């Protein structure tokens, strides 16, 4: 008689129930994973909301202080804020007037070369070798990078035997067939290098990897991936190196070319013309130093390799610019070295970009403020009083202006809350406190504003329509407040050790 075998398994044949110890370990592992996720999520939430809470608390506390302050104290603060803001506006218009010479010189030089059938003073044989570096975070710029590579290869007018285009990119995951397409281009174009930077997490990492290479270039240009340099832009930059052997960095003018997309990009376009065509060359003439601004900048390769970039800084470009200044480098701004770039087309992208810039400026200010009073450590380099004062204005005065503007806003708001004007006379008394000097300060601020924007109007790019200057002027007070708020957020982020970074979305 056949004896059947009774299986000791309670499950399917060929399987066995996990032991009690294994089940406990699995449960503990799941519990630990869930707790870790919950803590990480909570920590991220706290980090995201801490800067917002700090800024809101700052405004609420300030308004409350002014509400309970006496009228005499209010008048003291009011005059202090009005006078300091008037000083900043006056300094800005002086800076703008100093830029007129640079604008005139650039136009005159361009007209002369154009009349000579675009033959430049320096012969091709005497030009320095040039590397143009396109720096890209591939997931963010995969839709535009091939277009930019073709543009650099086909449109840039420079001796081909002295030019090489380097594509320095990083990506957290493979993106095919794009990466293969870029590598295949190098087989057709000997003047192209495509380099996937290993272990890179930032623009600074990409540039530093480039600095480890021996490309043989005399000058290295840095471009963000969304840029279209003017075909003659590199040639204008190299003319500056040829004309002045002491020049270490040439910073060009960045122009927004998608100004017609919406009102936001139009305002950013005007802002960029005000910064790159007016403020930067004006500051350079006024204080005798220039700044590398992150893109459309040309470095002597030896200096770039010596200084490199700090990947721990949110605005590694400003940090490297200030380190170059401390090193005694000569930086010039050339308005003919033009490059066209994209402005953020959505409010979230703009907000994230500017908050990163704000926090980055705070970091740079904290790290390099000592340049204002310290003696140069570079032999033969002496910082003049003018340069030190310029650094003071660029760093501390700029960062302080966020508080001056926001405090003035809080003061006015507190007065409106406690003593709302019911007639024109009351409004007049509220704004000027019946002091004639207030009129003069107010008028001087308006004249400075209109003067700066008038110069910007005449230096505007071809993408700026005349009526957008009017909108920019009318909304300038709101923009000042917005800039101050973003500056305060930058300070709050730095205080709370905010470390998140998001790339700006490209259009």
Automatic annotation (TrEMBL):
It comes from the Eukaryota. Residues 1-21 are annotated as: Disordered. InterPro entries: Glyco_trans_2-like, Glycosyltr_2/OpgH_subfam, Nucleotide-diphossugar_trans. One of its GO terms (cellular component) is membrane. It is found in: Membrane. GO terms for molecular function: glycosyltransferase activity. Residues 241-443 form the Glycosyltransferase 2-like domain. Residues 1-13 have a biased composition (Polar residues). This is Putative glycosyltransferase.
């Amino acid at each position: 008689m056949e004896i059947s075998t009774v299986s000791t398994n309670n499950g399917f044949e060929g399987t066995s129930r996990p032991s009690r110890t294994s089940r406990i370990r699995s449960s503990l592992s799941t519990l630990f994973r869930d707790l870790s996720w919950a803590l990480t999520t909570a920590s991220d939430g706290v980090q995201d909301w801490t800067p917002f809470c700090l800024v809101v608390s700052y405004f609420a506390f300030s308004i409350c202080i002014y509400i309970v302050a006496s009228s005499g104290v209010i008048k003291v603060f009011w005059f202090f804020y009005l006078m300091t803001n008037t000083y900043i506006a006056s300094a800005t218009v002086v800076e703008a007037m100093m830029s007129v010479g640079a604008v005139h010189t650039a136009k005159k030089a361009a007209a002369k070369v154009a009349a000579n059938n675009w033959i430049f003073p320096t012969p091709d044989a005497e030009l320095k070798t040039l590397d143009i570096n396109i720096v890209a975070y591939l997931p963010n710029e995969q839709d535009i990078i091939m277009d930019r590579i073709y543009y650099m290869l086909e449109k840039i007018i420079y001796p081909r035997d002295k030019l090489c285009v380097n594509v320095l990119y990083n990506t957290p995951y493979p993106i095919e067939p794009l990466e293969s397409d870029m590598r295949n281009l190098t087989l057709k174009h000997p003047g192209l290098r495509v380099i996937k930077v290993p272990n890179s997490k930032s623009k600074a990492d990409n540039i530093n990897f480039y600095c480890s290479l021996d490309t043989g270039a005399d000058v290295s240009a840095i471009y963000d991936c969304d840029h279209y340099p003017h075909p003659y832009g590199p040639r204008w930059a190299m003319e500056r190196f040829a004309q002045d052997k002491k020049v270490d960095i040439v910073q060009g003018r960045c122009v927004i070319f998608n100004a017609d997309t919406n009102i936001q990009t139009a305002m950013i376009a005007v802002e960029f013309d005000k910064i790159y065509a007016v403020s930067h060359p004006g500051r350079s003439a006024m204080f005798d130093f220039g700044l590398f601004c992150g893109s459309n900048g040309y470095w002597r390769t030896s200096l770039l390799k010596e200084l490199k970039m700090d990947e721990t800084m949110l605005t590694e470009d400003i940090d490297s610019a200030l380190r170059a200044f401390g090193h005694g480098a000569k930086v010039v701004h050339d308005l003919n070295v033009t490059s066209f770039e994209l402005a953020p087309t959505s409010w979230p992208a703009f907000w994230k970009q500017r908050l990163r810039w704000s926090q980055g400026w705070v970091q740079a200010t904290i790290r390099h403020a000592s340049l204002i009073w310290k003696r140069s450590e570079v032999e033969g380099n002496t910082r003049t009083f003018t340069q030190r004062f310029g650094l003071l204005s660029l760093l501390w005065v700029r960062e302080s202006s966020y508080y001056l503007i926001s405090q003035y806003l809080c003061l006015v708001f507190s007065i409106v809350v406690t003593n709302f004007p019911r007639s024109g006379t009351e409004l007049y008394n509220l704004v000027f406190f019946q002091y004639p000097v207030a009129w003069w300060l107010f008028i001087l601020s308006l004249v400075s504003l209109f003067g700066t924007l008038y110069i910007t109007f005449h230096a505007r790019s071809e993408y700026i329509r005349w009526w957008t200057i009017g909108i920019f002027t009318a909304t300038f007070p709101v923009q000042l407040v917005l800039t101050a708020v973003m500056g305060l957020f930058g300070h709050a982020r730095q205080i709370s050790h905010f470390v998140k970074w998001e790339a700006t979305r490209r259009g």
